[in-house]
Fold histidine kinase.
Amino acid sequence: MMNVRRWIGSAWSKLMDMPMERKLLFVFLVIIILPLTFIGYVSYSNYTNSIEKTTMSYSANLMTAMMERTDDYIDDMMRISSIPAYQAEIKQNLIRSNTYYGERQPANGGDKVQEDLNQVLLIQRGIQSSVKFINNMKRGANVVYIFDEYGNGYYSTESGAVRMDLEQSYNQWKELSANSGGKAILLGTEAYTSILNSKKYAFTVVRKILDDATLQPIGLIAVDTDIGIIEGQMVEMDKLTQGISFIVDENGGIIYDSDKQHHAKSIVQAPELLHTSEGSGSFYATVDGVEQLVMYTTSPNTHWKLFVLIPERELKSDSIRIRNVTWAATFVSIALALLISTLLSYALTKPLRKMMRLMRTVQEGDFSVQFPVKRRDETGQLGHQFNRMIVRIDQLIKEIYEMETKKNEAEMFALQTQINPHFMYNTLETIRMVAELNDDEAASDMLFVFGKLLRYSIGEVREKTVIEAELEHVRNYVEMLNYRYPNRFDLRIEADESYWQIPTLKLLLQPIVENAIYHGLDDRKAIMRIVIRVDQTDQFMLIHVIDDGLGMTPETRERLNLSFAGVDVSRPSRGGIGLRNVCERIKLHYGHRYGMQVLEGPEGGTEVVLRLPLSQPDTMSDE
């Protein structure tokens, strides 16, 4: 979670650091691309779902109508197979055929009875005329066969679709209908060879023919049904669904297959379809290596299943075309938006870029530039204020220059009227030599140290010095105090020699030491210890002035630190004026990053920390 927040923060920071032109371009693109992409995706998804639902609903209606028509057709075939039960002529002829061929069956190894051709022709004509009548009753009945109990078949057809292996088919039909009790049996599609030596496909309705008096079988009727009747309806449905369809019987045999690859085969060859249940439904499955929508419905009469397989690519072809058109329009819109956004962002940021160039010119010291104000919008108002600011800065610089000129003239006049410092140094040196001649060594040493203090402090306060000179000046100052208060002050300096030649301002440390002695002296201690430590961080050189005196209250330290930060405090702190002067000098010379801070000392006294640059630039102001 923290990594995600860090990444978001980093991305947001990079975005905020981008130029204004890129920010505007990014915002324009986000505002345009996101809605267009979202609308395109939602439209494509909704359209795809709508197409799929519509196709499924329409296909389901077609399949239901198809199965109803097939059921009606099979019902008609069933009724046709029941005609001999109501035709006395057919039964009489079948009884004659059974009697005729029964008499001519060899008995006990005897000789076969000679055939009566007239009787045979009479029987054939009687039955065939009835068969011809049955064939003409319903379109789609390929061949109607009527057999007697001895397997003699009678048929009448002009299509040439009579089975070549009729005897084998009869044996199979007789066996399947043995226990049917006179009910019609619907057999699945079979492939057979016709007498014209052509391959045919047909599903068959088989029924026993019973004698009315004895209810014993006297024959068999088989109606071979032309699957072409189903094919016409299936082809029409395949055109509408852009798929393939097939009908499967309740044993898994394929009645009809619209691509004619699985006629008279078993659905076991497509195991992904075996889990379908009764009724109707749909699911997606991979059939023959292709992802397809499988829809099915079941006939309540025959329990046959009608399957329709629609390839997913065909199902979604319209939606894919719409998707391609939508994405093409989206990309064109994005390209136009990118062009317009680029031009617009460039036009909006052009005045800002011009103002930035003018600011760089001002930074180089040329205050004669002017921003051309052409509009009254925010950019125009900003340009107007920029022009006013440049004029005002130019006026202030001229005023400061005049003030500095007058100040320098006043300082020159004061220098001309003051006593020459060399006169003071020479006079002190003369007094020191007289003290030495009179053997007064203490007075001589005091005058010598005082002369060094005077020489360092009377010089120009703003001139450059180094850390070593500042530390030496503090040593001389504490030595003079120890003449006045013998051995009362212990000064310790902890500074590596590598810091000694670093440039710094003059008279930074002596006022702090003086403030520590005069405001922190504890009469209860025989010796007051003062430590000056010099060290550094990555950005600052730090000088610590630490004493073990009386210290300051937290309120006093807080007011001093606020005053160092530039806050106007209502009541000046004790001893704070000298410290604030030192802090202000540091800020004036080095900038507001530098300055001072007052802390509580490690031994209860006070610690003053000076933050200075690690190395002073050569261009330090000589104000």
